[in-house]
Amino acid sequence: xxxxxxxxxxxxxxxxxxxxxxxxxxxxxxxxxxxxxxxxxxxxxxxxxxxxxxxxxxxxxxxxxxxxxxxxxxxxxxxxxxxxxxxxxxxxxxxxxxxxxxxxxxxxxxxxxxxxxxxxxxxxxxxxxxxxxxxxxxxxxxx
Length: 143
Description:
Layout: E1 2-8, H1 20-23, H2 28-41, E2 44-50, H3 54-63, E3 69-73, H4 82-89, E4 95-99, E5 121-124, H5 129-140
Parallel strand pairs: 1-2, 1-3, 3-4, 4-5
């Protein structure tokens, strides 16, 4: 059974109440449930982690280095965390950067990702389905 790590960064614990016009009304737990059910239907299992701390996110990436893939929404750290970028570059597991909102249609600073160059791809703007699309991409790599 393939194992996928889903890692979420700062403020994603506030989904459901945080700017619902940008992020929707689903909580992070609800999104995790959707992803978990989809993974199970595809013969995979997901492990979920969320932190507001950059160091904890780096540790989570390192711990998931033996996973079959990682989906990461690094939140604001996407735009400036060299530590998270370096953690992704240091592991063999394929990583997909995912975002609920279309970061390219938002503020100028959100259009820059320092982690995208070390990820296999970026999926943004599809709401909670961004995670589902990333899951499918990871499970189908090599097809």
